[in-house]
Each structure stands twice: as structure tokens, then as C-alpha cells.
Amino acid sequence: FRAINKEEKFHFPKDFLFGTASSAYQYEGAYLTDGKSLSNWDVFTEIPGKIEDGSNGKVAIDHYHRYPGDLDLLKDLGVDSYRFSLSWARILPRGRFGDVNMEGINHYNRVINAVLERGMEPFVTLTHYDIPQELEVRYRSWLSPQIREDFVHYAEICFQYFGDRVKFWTTFNEPNVQVLNSYRTGEYPPSRCSKPFGNCTRGNSDIEPLVAAHNIIRSHLAAVYTYRMKYQEEQRGKIGLVMSANWFEPVSDSLADRLAAERALAFYLTWFLDPVVYGRYPKEMQEILGEDLPEFTKDDLKLSKNGLDYIGINQYTGRYAKDCLHSACEPGKGGSRVEGFVNNHALKDGLALGEPTSISWLNVYPQGMEKVLMYATERYKNIPLYVTENGYGENSTGALLNDHRRIKYMSSYLDALKRAMRKGAHVRGYFTWSLLDNFEWVYGYTLRFGLYHVDFDTLERTPRLSASWYKNFIVKNRAQSKDDDA
Ligand code: PNW
Fold first, then answer.
1. How far apart are CA 229 and CA 227, in angstroms?
2. The pTM is what?
3. Contact present, 81 and 121 (Cβ < 8 Å)
4. Measuring from atom 4 of ligand 1, which residue has the nearest CA?
5. Which residues of 160-203 form beta strands (DSSP E)?
6. Which one, 17, 99, 148, 352, has least CB within 10 Å?
7. CA-proximal residue: ligand 1, atom 2 (nearest)
8. Is residue 136 annotated as part of the catalytic site, yes or no?
9. Ligand 1 contacts CB of residue 343 (under 6 A)
């Protein structure tokens, strides 16, 4: 008798989506082409010292012009779906203060059609960090409740023009990372921060990340409501939110550190998801922040009853959490003023979680994938989950074509994902970041996450070993789900 190996028995469901993920500013380039206006990232990258290699996304990897070839690469990989974002500044260069730019609409119509023609499903993000600069200048974007009107206007234009073909919408990519980096550490535009982070001359507020988050949550809820009331019945798509969902482990077994790990997750993940699903901020935030936490109106609460169709989980890594409420330590950027996250900067103290990589924020901790998927499944019951990003990056010197470290990473995280699914996690898709090397925000072109290498001078794309590995993985797993029917 052969012992039945549970690993062998697992099959992905037939409608599971395998894909890759990208974003407009990181891929497109063409920064003023066809009527696009300046985005906050176009302006920000001009400020000396903000981007590690002094670069920007003016050309990026020229996906704006090269998308047909790039989509051919995706088709060849055999993925089911392509996750990408729209540039708000292409579609509404002046937000609701100006007209729709039909050249922007036509461009994305061509992209969406090209995705569909190749037999893939477009999985479309409305906002992946970049917004028209005009909204920043006029009313400080996310710090103003006015942004909700602009966001809903933009979302509606997208539903109207693209909603007949787009069945998966995401309102925001990683709003938790966005507001912490924009308003707490100052690493992202508009570079506002609070002590002790960065050299901030502006900001100085523990409140701003909370206000921006609140405005994002209200913008999300209003856009979802609009979709439900006016478009969903006819267009039959799903709409959700994508969160950065790194896992936190307590740095010791003490109760204080275990509670700190829970607080860390509350101040990172459930910060946005609890309001959208349950109409309130997590209790850990309420306890610590009290009156500093903005409040939802009665109308907001009505909208939050049905606040999303799926949760997008971007899962890369894990961190340690250490209590700073009952003991002295440096509070981290988690936004909570209270707990410190020990990441692999603390390697010298022997406190790195998982295996370090050449990237300071990325350590290999696949257990975090399994744990966060189980956590979200338990906390948000029947809401489907999509792993909307997971991937391995290396600094340019280490970024070989023979990327066995990426393959090892992906295979261990996909194993963790399967373990979670066997235990009942409602996962419906997995997208790897990314098809191609691209502009990696404040790291510029110094980090490479692609299954394909991109020569940033000639823009030539060359497959790494991981491309054929992923292709093979998909073929194998698809064949298995077919066997299920037999
Ligand atoms: C994601 N962390 O951001 C973004 O959605 C992508 O645009 C980006 O290119 C990709 O990850 C790779 O960096 C992250 O602190 C931000 O662990 C922060 C973290 C992870 C991912």
C-alpha cells in the first residue's frame, strides 16, 4: 500500500486564474503621449534624491507602445489573466475639472481587446499609486474628502467605456503601503512624513495617514456602490480591493509580543478591510488611537454592508513584531506609534524572519502566505481571495537569467498557497509580480522582479528560467484540474 500523499491529491479548481501583475507607471512610459497629463509620480521623480538611481518612468519599459508583443509573451506563458492598472492621468488628465481624453480611452480599449483576443481575462486596477497631479495641487488629493467625488467620476468613466469587457475591477492597489509611504515615511509623493521618519519638513502628523486612509476607504465604498447600482447587473463583473498583506510573527513568545503581532496586522491589513466589510476600524486601532480615528457616517455604514466582491492579497514576505507598548523600543512605520517591526535590517541581531535576500524589505517566509490566507478566510468568511501579487526581486548584480532563487521562492510560496487551499482558504487566483523587469518605485531600475529580463537601454526582453518554470507549472496544474472531470 502506498500512503496517500495529500500534496498529490490537491488540484486547483477549474476556474482558478493564473496570471502576472503590472502597473501603469512602472511599465508604460509614454509619459506625455496622446494627451496624458503629469501624474504625481511624474512630478515627484523630478525631485533630486527621491529615486535611488535618479531615474523615472518617462520611458519605463515602453509597454504603452510594446503591449502587443508583451501580451504575446503572456499568451506564450499560458496564463489565464493579465493584471494591470490604468493611468488616471491618461483618461482624465484634469480629473473632474476637465474632459475625458478619448486617446487614453482608445488606448486602453485596444489593450483590453488585445488581452481578450489572446484568450486572457483582463484584471484591471483603477489606482496603483499614480493620480493626476492636478488633484494634488488643487486640494491635496487623499487628504481631502473631495477626492471621493473625483474617484467615483473616474471609476464611472472606466465602467462605462470598459465595463462591457472587464470582469475584474480593483479600486486601489495597496492603499496601506500608499498612505504609509506618502504620509508617514515620506518616501512616496507628496512626501509628507512624521517624525522620526525621513527628513521631513512637511507633514509632521500621525493623523495624516489616518485621514488619507479614511478618504480612500470612503472613495472605495462609493465606487463600489456606484458599480452595484448602475453597472454590475448588466456588466456582471466583480469589484474588490488589493491589500499589501505581509505577515507578522511575534519576536518572542511573550504575551506582549503576541499582542504586538496582532496589533501590527490590525494597523496594516484589517485597517482597510474591516471598515469595508464590517463598517468599523479594528478594535486594536480604536483602543490605541481613540479620537484620532476618523468616523464613518451613517451613509458610509450602509455602503459597507456589501463593500467588496473579493479581497486581493499581495503577499511577499513576513516581519517580526515587537511590543513597544509595555517596553521601550523604536516604534516602526506601521503607523501605530506603538509597535516596532523588526525586519532584516535587524539581521545583525539575529532577528531576521525567514531567509534574507538582496532586497532589504524582502525575506523568504512562505509560511506567511499560508497564514495570511487562513487569517483572511476566517475573518472575512465567504469572501473569495485572489493572490494579486507575489514575486521575487534581486538587485541588478544578482539578476541572472538563470534565476533559480526566484523559482525556489515561487515554488515554496505556491506550495504554501496550496496548503492553505487544502485547509479551506477561498483562493481563486494567483498573479506573480511580474512578467517583466520594470521601474521599481523609489528603487528605480535597481531591482528586478521579472520572469523576463529587460535591457533598460535597448528595452529588449529575454526570458529567464523562471518563465519556462511558471509556464510548466501552469500546464501541469491545469492538466490536473482536467483529470478531475474524468
Ligand atoms: C508592491 N513590503 O509593493 C507593489 O504593488 C508593486 O507596485 C511593486 O512593484 C511590488 O510590490 C514589488 O516591490 C510592495 O513592504 C510594497 O513588503 C511594500 C512591500 C511589498 C510590496
1. 6
2. 0.95
3. yes
4. 174
5. 168-173
6. 99
7. 361
8. no
9. no
**Residue found under cell 528586478:** 448
What residues have CB less than 8 Å from 419, skipping those under 6 apart? 370
Question: Is the C-beta atom of 388 inside 6 A of ligand 1?
Answer: no
Q: What are the CA-CA distances from residue 87 to residues 128, 418, 474 (Å)?
A: 8, 34, 30
Q: Which atom of ligand 1 is nearest to the CA of 129?
A: 7
Which residue owns the Cα nearest ligand 1 atom 10? 433
254 C-alpha to center of ligand 1: Å?
Answer: 30
Reply yes or no on whether 378 is catalytic.
no
What span, in angstroms and rounded, lies between the C-alpha atoms of 26 and 64? 11
Catalytic residue among 121, 134, 174, 440, which? Answer: 174
- What are the residues whose beta carbons fall under 8 Å from the beta carbon of 37, sequence distance 6 or more? 89, 93, 94, 132, 133, 134
Output the tens digit of pLDDT for each of the chain's 486 residues: 555 555 557 899 999 999 999 999 999 999 999 999 999 999 999 999 999 999 999 999 999 999 999 999 999 999 999 999 999 999 999 999 999 999 999 999 999 999 999 999 999 999 999 999 999 999 999 999 999 999 999 999 999 999 999 999 999 999 999 999 999 888 999 999 876 666 666 665 788 999 999 999 999 999 999 999 999 999 999 999 999 999 999 988 999 899 989 999 999 999 999 999 999 999 999 998 999 999 999 999 888 888 999 999 999 999 888 888 877 666 565 555 555 565 544 544 556 789 989 998 999 999 999 999 999 999 999 899 999 999 999 998 777 899 999 999 999 999 999 999 999 999 999 999 999 999 999 999 999 999 999 999 999 999 999 999 999 999 999 877 666 554
Instruction: Find the 440 Cα to ligand 1 centroid distance in Å.
Output: 8
Say how many Å lie between the CA of residue 312 and the centre of ligand 1: 13
Q: Are 396 and 445 in contact (CB under 8 A)?
A: yes
Residue 477's contacts (CB-CB under 8 Å, 6 or more residues apart) are: 11, 12, 18
Tell me the CA–centroid distance for residue 198 and ligand 1, in Å.
Answer: 19
Quick one: how many helices (H) and strands (E) in the chain?
18, 17
